[in-house]
Amino acid sequence: TTEGCLPEIFNLFGLGEPVTPTNPECSEYKTLSDPTRSIHYEGPDDEELYCDTMASPFSLSSPDWADADWYRFDGPGGHRMPEKSPGLSKCGSYVTGWLEGKHPRAFGQTIDTFVCFHFDRVDCYHSAAAKVTR
């Protein structure tokens, strides 16, 4: 999942040539923008909750989910994955995912991290390895 990439990074003093990130995730990604992804989304009680896996027999895949790949959060769904659990049944999902740790600080930086999933009153009931690029 990507938090975002700049198309060009310039040095602080305006000297030299611009540096363009070569990370493929900065140009070859899918976008997560469905409004149900927002931590502020309040859907109706009888609404179908989503699961970002094609293998789930219990719920539908989110409209903007395709499969494991690089994703960028953008639009009405928010611009980044939360860094703490927003709680159970948030973001259009019963088992809510959140980033364990902080997003990278430097542009073009990629970190190895984990996405935790809140379930059954446990903030990190399950986790999955992930990479995040800024």
Structure description:
This protein is mainly β. 0% of the residues lie in helices and 25% in strands. The chain has no helices and 5 strands. A 3-stranded antiparallel sheet has the order 3-4-5, with no helix packed on it. The protein has a two-stranded parallel sheet with strand order 1-2. Strand 4 and strand 5 form a beta hairpin. The N terminus is likely disordered.
How are the SSEs placed, and which strands pair?
Elements: E1 30-32, E2 71-73, E3 96-100, E4 110-119, E5 122-133
Parallel strand pairs: 1-2
Antiparallel strand pairs: 3-4, 4-5
Question: What structural keywords apply?
Answer:
disordered N terminus; 3-stranded antiparallel β-sheet; 134 residues; mainly beta; single chain; 5 strands; globular; 0% helix; 25% strand; two-stranded parallel ribbon
Briefly say what this structure is.
The chain contains no helices and five strands.
Strand coverage percent: 15-25%
Mean pLDDT: 78
Q: How many beta-strand runs?
A: 5
> Order of strands across the biggest sheet?
3-4-5
Percent helix range: under 10%
